[in-house]
């Protein structure tokens, strides 16, 4: 991964073309569409956990970026070896610990026990039926003391694996604050516009194009402002204002299209996995692969 020269403080490490062309999961025989779906579900799981843990969105966003980075390239983590749910939990625990809002292993594991419960989880990719009882039984997501101690060791081990895989580089710049600064700079403000900008930035964390590891935060900020202004009906200056923030027209166009496609992508994922949970463990992934092979052999 590379960072923009001279902008280390406001830039992120970006995935190289070689890293994007192949992943450890693909080398282990995981189909690209399945890998995309699991990354998508893992990012959604991380977001939901962050909300329940009452963490600021910037910490949650950083955790999702770390989760995404972990799977990048042939030297990254493989879904055939590491469960996405474990990487998600360790990512949010790690980034919370490095922030002003640390949270305990017990809190993280209790939240994940609830979110991963097929009887109690409100998440569609865990509980596809989405038919929840008004008061689901606590037994369905209760984490015993023995279970906690075992999972705590696994959480800390996964944290170490993530750090080693990323070369202990956990620097993540989130574009949200940058976007607000740009809005003030070009004298374009408004709660509706700012809200829509943030919506696009948060949705882009789930992008199948991996926008947060392929583009710098200043470009993400500019693209979200450009798209949000068109949607909200805010008139921008006629000049090519994005060039002031070091973003060219080609990059802006790609990002706008990618951000604009997130709603369609999300809906298509729900359609593809309708009635079936997305595999977030190694065991469930193996079962899904066996199911696909059986279906293919039967054709």
From TrEMBL:
<dbReference type="GO" id="GO:0006357">
    <property type="term" value="P:regulation of transcription by RNA polymerase II"/>
</dbReference>
<protein>
    <recommendedName>
        <fullName>Cyclin-like domain-containing protein</fullName>
    </recommendedName>
</protein>
<dbReference type="GO" id="GO:0016538">
    <property type="term" value="F:cyclin-dependent protein serine/threonine kinase regulator activity"/>
</dbReference>
<dbReference type="InterPro" id="IPR036915">
    <property type="entry name" value="Cyclin-like_sf"/>
</dbReference>
<dbReference type="InterPro" id="IPR043198">
    <property type="entry name" value="Cyclin/Ssn8"/>
</dbReference>
């Amino acid at each position: 991964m590379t960072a923009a020269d001279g902008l280390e403080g406001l830039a992120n490490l970006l995935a190289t073309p070689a890293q994007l062309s192949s992943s450890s999961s693909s080398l282990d025989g995981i189909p690209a569409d399945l890998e995309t779906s699991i990354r998508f579900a893992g990012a959604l799981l991380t977001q939901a956990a962050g909300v329940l843990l009452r963490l600021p969105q910037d910490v949650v966003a950083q955790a999702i970026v770390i989760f995404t980075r972990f799977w990048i390239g042939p030297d990254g983590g493989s879904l055939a070896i590491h469960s996405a749910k474990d990487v998600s939990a360790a990512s949010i625990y790690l980034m919370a610990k490095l922030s002003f809002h640390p949270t305990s292993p017990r809190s993280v594991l209790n939240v994940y026990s609830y979110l991963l419960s097929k009887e109690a989880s409100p998440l569609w990719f865990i509980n596809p039926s989405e038919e929840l009882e008004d008061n689901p039984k606590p037994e369905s997501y209760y984490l015993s003391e023995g279970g906690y101690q075992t999972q705590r060791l696994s959480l800390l081990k996964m944290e170490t694996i993530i750090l080693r895989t990323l070369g202990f580089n956990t620097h993540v710049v989130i574009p949200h604050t940058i976007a607000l600064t740009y809005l003030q700079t070009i004298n374009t403000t408004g709660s509706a516009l700012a809200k829509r900008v943030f919506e696009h930035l948060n949705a882009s964390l789930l992008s199948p194009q991996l926008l947060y590891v392929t583009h710098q935060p200043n470009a993400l900020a500019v693209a979200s402002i450009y798209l949000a202004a068109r949607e909200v009906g805010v008139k921008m200056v006629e000049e090519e204002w994005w060039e002031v923030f070091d973003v060219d027209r080609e990059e802006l166009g790609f990002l706008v299209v990618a951000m604009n496609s997130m709603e369609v992508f999300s809906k298509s994922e729900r359609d593809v996995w309708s009635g079936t949970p997305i595999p977030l463990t190694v065991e469930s992934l193996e079962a899904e692969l066996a199911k696909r092979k059986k279906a293919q052999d039967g054709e």
